[in-house]
Amino acid sequence: MTTPISDTSQPPDRKAVLICFDCGHESSVDGDWILERDGGRERSRCPECGTTITARPASDYGERSRRAAACADD
Fold it and tell me: Which of 24, 25, 38, 61 has a CA that sits 20 to 30 A from residue 52's CA?
């Protein structure tokens, strides 16, 4: 049996990389992006040019956990 050859030219987890569509900056999802919460929205902005990369409803993990625990107690 042969051992597969690894391609080390790219980081192993390329799916977890965000790329700024304006300037091309690349970083992991939990990398150097500027995270902001405003008006119930959570945004990730590029640290190089300020472009908003993602915008979604802000997650409130603590509140969801409390609701799940309350439902489990019923």
Answer: 61
Q: Which of 39, 14, 48 is nearest to 29 (CA)?
A: 14
pLDDT tens, residue by residue, 45-54: 999 999 999 9
CA dist 26 and 13 (Å) reads 13
Which residue is it, tokens 């489990």? 72
Q: What is the pLDDT of residues 14-61, one digit of tens each?
A: 568 999 999 999 999 889 999 999 888 999 999 999 999 999 998 765
